[in-house]
Amino acid sequence: MTQHDAIVIGGGHNGLIAAAYLARAGLDVVVLEARDDLGGAARTEQPWGPDFKVTALSYVMSLMPPTIIDDLRLRDHGYRVIPMGPSYLPFPDGRSLLLEEDPRRDQAEIAKFSRRDAERYPDYWAWLAGVADVLAPLLLRTPPRLGSHRPTDLLDQLRLAWGLRGLDVRTTAEATRLFTMSIRDVLDRWFTSPQVQGALAVNGIIGTWAGPDEPGTAYVMMHHTIGDVGDGRLGSWGYPVGGMGAVADACAAAARAFGARLRTGAPVERILVTGGRVRGVALASGEELAAPVVVAATHPQITFLRHLDRRELPADFVADLEAWRSRSGVVKVNVALSELPDFLADPGTDLHPRHTGAIELCHSIDYLEEAFQDARSGRAARRPYADCVIPSTLDPTIAPEGAHVMSMFCQWVPHTWAEDPQPGELEAFADRVVDAMTELAPNFKRSIIHRQVIGPHEMARDYGLVGGNIFHGELSTDQLFHMRPAPGYADYTTPVAGLYQCSSATHGGGGVTGIPALLCTRRILRDRRRAAWRRRPW
């Protein structure tokens, strides 16, 4: 049995970042990835040959703290992110909305739909920024064990309270609204235009099994709005040069540079436990590896309900994980294009800022709700929503000259499609997405050279995303902060001594952030220092 200081299960971005930090601290670390390549959902694929590089699932960067980028010297390993262009919404009536994060220009665009909304728009962003100032620091804070009476846990709770000392009655009320309200209810307080509301609602439902009328979607909006790509702009997102796989490659290179060993094609069969303490893992091949520390970057239902014997875990913890909601109605449609979309609202296939950012297939906030209600009733949306980007407009390394790669993140289909694949229905849904985009840009369908369709079943089967959920668990109010993924274990520990967790289902997850890995490894190294202190001769 090979002995290591630490074993990391899962070679997605969180697993790679965890390995890099542990190796940086001097530990002998090995990463075990089941697939034949690294990156998990943050990977670049070439389904149509070497000319096109496609980010199969995750497709834009935000929220990764500069701390991680600097600590791991990711820029030295090829990490480079180009800020996206503006958000563009074309509408069937020939109008469009282009939001460039320029207050005057954005107000002029919104005034085409409502002068009152245009007047209120700056105040809305000022309100968001104020709440973000309160909530953003929580992303980099390990959740305490709320309700625990242990002295160390009480101290952690006091630290949390001290960190929130800047809250007053008003900001507390606003934060409460964000955690509990629907995104529609929030937007109804500010805007009247259904098109403007639709444009601002998309961040509240992206990747979520919930329409804009569902309570809690206001927080999902804030989660997607807080981050930046290192330039300090609230809610800014970016394209990694080379696709999302370049981010994983940089994390992998950093881990190797610090001495970590990365193994692919090494699926873990079981996590080995003796006397309530982890002792290593067994691979599907029968090989066993030993380590006093095991870090699971896999979905929690894989970690705790498949890799472990449930008898090793408290019954209430098992019940919490069995009830963990990981539903999804997402379909990813990736296409190669011979030319850029020629929109009826803004004609022209020459490169324009409208092609360089998010292109939203969203006619109104009611359009979003209708699409979700279709899926909730058991059928794929008749009029799908899609969040589309064409990263090749700013990153020419991923497509041949004159051609482009477009990512279409589409919603919703029934979440049951994760267990029951529907290949015919899946293709029909993708056809409707293409038809809806062609209604807005008549050249779109004929410009498609290649197409790739990935549904919830493929996400679960091929990428380990249980339920097809890109966040490893829904970002609902009862699955956030000290509840993520289970009360008492949101501090990256588990009921098994020496076994830690850093998947996107832990606090700070949801997107390619690396925050779970950062906070988890801080906890591991702190525990090691405490253990070493206790062993000191006195």
Tell me what the structure shows.
By secondary structure, the protein is of the alpha/beta class. The protein has three domains: 2-43 and 66-79 and 243-325 and 471-534, FAD/NAD(P)-binding domain (3-Layer(bba) Sandwich); 83-226, no CATH class; 238-242 and 327-463, Polyamine Oxidase, Chain A, domain 2, CATH 3.90.660. The chain contains 17 helices and 20 strands. The chain has helices at residues 13-24, 66-71, 103-111, 115-139, 151-163, 169-180, 183-188, 194-205, 217-226, 244-257, 300-305, 315-322, 365-376, 423-440, 444-447, 456-463, 515-534; strands spanning 2-3, 6-9, 29-32, 44-45, 54-55, 81-83, 87-90, 96-99, 238-240, 261-263, 268-274, 277-283, 288-290, 293-296, 330-337, 359-361, 385-389, 404-411, 448-454, 499-501. A five-stranded parallel β-sheet has the order 10-3-2-14-20, with helices on one face. Strand 4 and strand 5 (54-55) form a beta hairpin. Helix 3 (103-111) crosses helix 4. The longest helix has 25 residues, at 115-139. It is globular. The two termini are 34 Å apart.
On the 0 to 100 scale, the average pLDDT is 91
What's the CATH superfamily of the largest domain, by name?
Answer: FAD/NAD(P)-binding domain
- Gyration radius, in Å: 23 Å
β-strand percent reads 15-25%
Sheet with most strands: 5 strands, parallel
Coarse morphology: globular
CATH topology of the largest domain: FAD/NAD(P)-binding domain
- The CATH architecture designation of the largest domain is 3-Layer(bba) Sandwich
> What's the number of helices?
17
Oligomer: single chain
